[in-house]
Model the fold of this input.
Amino acid sequence: MSPVHGSCCVLIPCLNEERAIGGVVADALALGLPVIVVDDGSDDRTPEIVAALPVTLLRHAHRRGKGEALRTGFREALRIGYDSVVTMDGDGQHLASDIPAILEASRLYPGRIVIGARLLNREQQPTGRRRANAVADWGISWACACPIADTQSGQRLYPRAVLDLVDLPAEHFVFEAALLITACRERGIDVVSVPIASRYQGNFRLSHFKPVRDVTRITTYTIGRLIRYGSILASYRRSRAAPTIIAH
Done:
């Protein structure tokens, strides 16, 4: 049976998350939402744990990066017929309890990307990560020509029009930046942020995000988009002129 109009699923890309994935998925299921998990070639017990739960589990035979994991999940969501997808990481830093507020923001601002923005308890963020995120917000907002809070958050709601960008030529962590930039600049889709807590204290595994490598990749892509779209100064002014849209 196809999903009803307005239906949403939760998409969780994961890699070696055996410590947290069971709880993350169970909490998402408790919301009554269908869950798609994409395992990106884990070599621990992650697939075994997920396979025991009532979810759709898709597996990559080998590691292909977060971008490809999201792409695989998007294709499955489109195949089934969901109208939107909420993404969250599998390491426990994103809470399913924040999803209702994200869904409510989507109801109030239909057709927009909704980001769970880590604006609360920001003192938990390591200083280096906080500064890197601030630089990323500045640069990606410039490329989007609109202000966005927490462009690096992986907890987002993507409407159908963004899912249709599944074949964007961007890989790894660049894919998430590419979705924001392309949706804003080529589809005219706005971005709304919902404040959520920063969570860096806890038994989390080491991040798969490699600051030097991945920041370089994202920066290179962002600069390339700015050059391609032109009107660089006008884009910057637009990114600074309007207030960031925050749904409370």
Strands lie at 8-14, 35-39, 56-59, 84-87, 113-120, 156-159, 191-197. The mean pLDDT is 91. The domain at 8-241 is CATH 3.90.550.10 (Spore Coat Polysaccharide Biosynthesis Protein SpsA; Chain A).
